[in-house]
Design a protein that fits this description.
It is found in: Cytoplasm. By secondary structure, this protein is α/β, with parallel strands linked by helices. The protein contains 20 helices and 14 strands. The structure holds adenosine-5'-triphosphate.
């Protein structure tokens, strides 16, 4: 199936010109003037998509929208439209999973060729940088997720290490979800269990096996049959339980208390810890043989301080998620927010950032999250001016339009009506050809086609079709 096209561009004139170009080819085209509308369209309309994404959107920018899409596991092919043509921006876009990029002003021939190529591509898993919805742009995260992706389909036990809130459980779930295992993902917090209950909870028991065992329980291992058992805070497991766990891992069978003997289990083990297990082993608190059984592969997640470049994408992703949960609109962060977020130490890592963004969203008025929403009390050294009450800025509300915006739209409309013919467009707008060219450059409206032999005809046919489609 050919992909649909979504044009995400805040400049109405450019957006219309691009949309018209592809409608004229008989393609299905949707338009969005900001990130939130784009996400709404991607939610509401079935893909697959080619998304033409302007990098300089107001509010949530194009790069952050790209991260949000990748974070959601979207399989759209994204072509970034970059204004400055800076190699850095293009590289960052490709790292975040863009399929291609074009510099503005975009030559329509080139745009057509690039879109045709991507529109014909079958739906495929999102490209590198993305793994089961996790945000990753920092090299250490990209490497960690790459390892996770490769090991996921195997039965290899994986030990995930990293500070609290760095995403260990989230990664474990992602490994399970992409493992192809059909059983359940069962999580056990080994630090929160009373020592006396660990064995019956993990391995199960028969009715009457001990005082209070009024009915049989299968235990977490057998609940995870055919699936994954996630042993969180493994570093806090008492030594006696470590011995029993080691036996189960070695034998591949559990021996429920009061039961008739061992029962074999097919369970993939994932474990996580924020402790330094090497030090725990050296101190005699953790069994080395168990460590080697659990750490078939070890994946270390960095703290947020070591992945500063991911902060804005994580914040945008979680703001968009929180907005959906709260039934709110989120159109981006206000001035200074990105810099402020980047300057915080975030000792609680992604979880702390997520909580801060959620709270700011709840406190915000309107669809933009402002700096003051993150610091409602305002530290004494940095007085926070009260945020002016946000005016309703939702779609459909009346607003004053800048003359430049109206002018750019008028030019784009005229170009479409006149099938891209410059002289005719200028005449009907009542301006000279050179003024029209100057204004087109100013608003980054590219000519529909380079005036080459034999091309005018093709352009006029296309755009005539576009007009008819628009008028329908
Ligand atoms: N790369 C990421 N992209 C998006 N969200 C993330 C990412 N990493 C973590 N999160 C989110 O951050 C929160 C904390 O993650 P998680 O609970 O997995 O951390 P943890 O390391 O297991 O914490 P703890 O050690 O305290 O149990 C979760 O809501 C998770 O969805």
């Amino acid at each position: 199936m050919e992909r649909r096209i979504l044009v995400v561009e805040d400049d109405a004139a450019q957006r219309r010109v691009i949309a018209a170009l592809f409608r004229a080819q008989g393609r299905v085209v949707s338009e969005a003037d900001c990130a939130q509308v784009a996400l709404d369209i991607l939610d509401a309309e079935a893909g697959p998509w080619v998304v033409l994404l302007d990098i300089g959107l107001p509010g949530m920018g194009g790069l952050d929208l790209l991260s949000v899409m990748r974070g959601r596991g979207d399989d759209a092919r994204v072509v970034m439209l970059t204004a400055d043509g800076g190699v850095d921006t293009a590289v960052r876009a490709m790292q975040r999973g863009a399929a291609d990029y074009l510099e503005k002003p975009v030559a329509m021939d080139r745009l057509r060729a690039v879109v045709a190529r991507h529109a014909a591509m079958p739906a495929a898993p999102a490209p590198s940088g993305a793994f089961a919805g996790l945000v990753a742009g920092a090299p250490a995260m990209v490497a960690a997720l790459d390892l996770a992706r490769r090991v996921a389909p195997s039965r290899m036990p994986v030990l995930v290490t990293g500070p609290s809130g760095s995403g260990k459980e989230r990664l474990a779930r992602a490994i399970h979800e992409t493992s192809g295992r059909t059983g359940a993902f069962v999580a056990v917090n080994c630090g929160a269990l009373p020592e006396s209950l660990i064995e019956s909870l993990l391995f199960g028991h028969e009715k009457g096996a001990f005082t209070g065992a009024d009915r049989a329980k299968p235990g977490r291992f057998r609940e995870a049959e055919g699936g994954t058992l996630f042993l969180d805070e493994i570093g806090e497991m008492p030594l006696a339980a470590q011995v029993s766990l080691l036996r189960v891992v070695q034998e591949g069978e559990v021996d429920p208390l009061g039961g008739r003997g061992p029962v074999s289990v097919d369970v993939r083990l994932l474990a996580a810890t924020n402790r330094d297990l090497g030090a725990e082993i050296a101190e005699g608190r953790f069994r080395e043989d168990l460590y080697f059984r659990l750490a078939g592969v070890e994946i270390a997640l960095p703290g947020l301080a070591e992945r500063g470049e991911d902060i804005s994408a994580l914040a945008a992703t979680h703001a968009a998620e929180a907005a959906r949960r709260e039934g709110r609109q989120f159109h981006g962060f206000g001035p200074g927010v990105a810099e402020w977020l980047a300057a915080q130490p975030w000792p609680g890592n992604v979880r702390e950032l997520q909580n801060a963004v959620h709270r700011a969203l709840v406190l915000s008025e309107g669809s933009e999250i402002r700096l003051a929403d993150f610091r409602p009390a305002g530290p004494a050294s940095e007085p926070v001016r009260p945020a002016p009450r946000a005016r309703p800025s939702e779609r459909g509300a009346r607003r004053v339009r800048a003359l430049a915006e109206v002018e750019a739209e008028a030019i784009a409309d005229a170009l479409i009506l006149c099938s891209g013919q410059i002289s005719e467009t200028a005449r009907r707008l009542g301006i000279g050809r050179s003024t029209l060219y100057r204004k087109m450059a100013q608003y980054q409206i590219a000519p529909f086609n380079e005036p080459r032999e034999g091309r005018e005809h093709e352009a006029s046919q296309d755009l005539g079709g576009a007009r008819r489609q628009q008028e329908r």
